[in-house]
Amino acid sequence: MNLKKGVLSIHTREQKKVFMLWGLTGGVACGKSTVAKIFEENKIPVIDADHIAHELVLPGGLGYEAIIQRFGTSDRAWLRKTVFNDQKAKEDLEAILHPLIQTESLRIMRELQKTNPQSPIIYEAALLVEKKKADEFEGLIVVEAPRELRKKRLIKRDQLSEDMAEKIFASQTSDEER
Questions:
Q1: Phi, psi for residue 2 in degrees, rounded to 5
Q2: In the chain, N or C terminus with fewer CB closer than 10 Å?
Q3: Verdict on whether the full-model pTM lies above 0.90
Q4: Which residue ranges make up each domain of the chain?
């Protein structure tokens, strides 16, 4: 398997198949999921990195035991508060989850390739630019929305304080840099 410049090549004994992989990114609460739904409604498959991460930390998920061992809980609200107040905790959480997310994403891509090898695939993740993953995609689809609107959405959706919302914003690349 070779992930390179936006094209994922999976080599099998029978043949080489290539399909296009596009990144869908943007800041928190900008509307990525809404754009992803539009792709799905048009029969373009979407892999949602946040959904994968959520599944990994549920009891029985591949990351659950490591999360419990490191943090003592898998409660998402507690983890969010902890990692946005403690850089080491954030690094530890990412070290646990990011390799698992990548492995599961590649597994899903292989399955999608089997069912429709000619279809492009959209990979939805907020941190593609921050984690220097942009070059792994054919291109990036960047969703933007005014910061104040995003902040209101985030506070309402996740029931966060304004201070916590600001910490989340501070951890992400600005729309201009994206």
A1: -140, 115
A2: N
A3: no
A4: 2-170
pLDDT (tens digit, 9 = 90+) per residue, 8-41?
A: 333 334 444 456 999 999 999 999 999 999 999 9
Is residue 29 within 8 A of residue 154, CB to CB? The reply is yes
Taking 3-state DSSP, the helix, strand and coil percentages for the chain, each rounded to the nearest 5, stand at 50, 15, 35
Token couple for 117: 């090898």
CB 47 within 8 A of CB 103: no
In whole angstroms, what separates CA 19 from the centre of its chain?
20
Three-state secondary structure of 25-79? EECCCCCHHHHHHHHHHCCCCEEEHHHHHHHHCCCCCCCHHHHHHHHCCCCHHHH
Q: What is the mean pLDDT of residues 60-69?
A: 98
User: Which fold is adopted by the domain 2-170?
Assistant: Rossmann fold (3.40.50)
